[in-house]
Amino acid sequence: MNLKDILAVSGMSGLYRFVSQGRNGVIIEGLVDKKRINASASARVSALEDIAIYTEDKELPLKEVLRRIYQKENAGATAIDPKSPNDKLKKYFEEIVPDYDHDKVYASDIKKVLIWYNLLLSQNMIDLDEDLKEEEKTEEIKEEEKQ
User: Fold this and answer.
1) H or E, element range at 22
2) Structural domain 6-48, CATH architecture
3) Domain ranges in the chain?
4) How far apart are CA 147 and CA 142, in angstroms?
5) What is the pLDDT of residue 55?
6) CA max distance for the chain
7) Do domains 6-48 and 51-136 have the same CATH topology?
8) What whole-number percentage of the chain has pLDDT above 90?
9) E strand or H helix at 104
10) Which candidate, 39, 41, 65, places its Cα nearest to that of 51?
11) 51-136: which CATH topology?
12) pTM given for the model
């Protein structure tokens, strides 16, 4: 699952794919509707790869959180509706990330993660086999560098 070119834009719902750098910002394409728009330079654009969830002692990359949800749900959509009451969302998320920081991770953050997961899953963008291959390549490169 390559999250480098998948973007979240503050104030805009959904996820977007990076298309190109424009004069006044970046050109992005909606994952669902495939419409291209310009996100201005003043818009807060974040690559999913750069997002992490606070835990008690470190930050857990979003990719790992998505992987845990995927495994818990047996490659299916989330069992809980992202619009569920906050206490149910927190209880569900605690099963995924038991040591998440309850003071820094809000219910709105959990909702976003669940919505993003379901969206990426619907677009066939969550592939654990691909991740395993990437990790194996990285380990091979590290071994070669040691020699």
Assistant:
1) strand 16-22
2) Roll (2.30)
3) 6-48, 51-136
4) 9
5) 94
6) 54
7) no
8) 66
9) none
10) 65
11) Arc Repressor Mutant, subunit A (1.10.10)
12) 0.83
